[in-house]
């Protein structure tokens, strides 16, 4: 089984990669289109040179890997994807060759607040808000049914309960190993991990339940408010 988990940045996505990667039957890959995205857009992100040195930038080669044999002789291939990486020049005709697609969403106020701590430039597209709903519609057409949606805040409220429902929804046996892992980096972590993954590297499981929504102002507040309707439409279909 190949599982494509689609989210924007700061959506609990790396913690979810840790959770699935803790399963003995699962191989994980971290944002496989990141290098291709940077090459095609010409953007310079933190550690761009390291990303190009360590990761494949040819989209077709990435696709061949994602749709080929599961690495390491495992039976499950967990693929952590960022929706905003799927820019023009990256084919999307491979989606139907992935057995399970899941959208991981989070309240936009939390996403924006977390993203702003790492990056100065803010935009809805950089955080994947419009792309996530567009992908939901595209996957619904390709698959003939809406993909599974899971909410990050709900996971933090009840990790075992939500993960059990998620596994059932995608036809994967439950494994309690998904609830904990040793601290530190992992082989599947992308070259960008030293910039982004400080909290995940310290973690040994899911964090505490989320507190009140962060207070935002200015451009950050405008972006979060603009994305709220999209988030609520997707939230209505979560597991």
UniProtKB/TrEMBL annotation:
Q: Name one GO biological process term.
A: branched-chain amino acid biosynthetic process
Assigned keywords, A-Z: Amino-acid biosynthesis, Branched-chain amino acid biosynthesis
Q: Which InterPro entries match?
A: Class-IV_PLP-Dep_Aminotrnsfr, P-loop_NTPase
Under Gene3D superfamilies, the record lists: P-loop containing nucleotide triphosphate hydrolases
Does the entry feature the keyword Amino-acid biosynthesis, yes or no?
yes
Q: Does the keyword Amino-acid biosynthesis apply?
A: yes
**Which SUPFAM superfamilies does the record cross-reference, listed alphabetically?**
P-loop containing nucleoside triphosphate hydrolases (SSF52540)
State the family named in the UniProt similarity comment for this chain: Belongs to the class-IV pyridoxal-phosphate-dependent aminotransferase family.
The molecule here is called: Branched-chain amino acid aminotransferase
Q: In which organism is this protein found? A: Hyphomonas hirschiana VP5
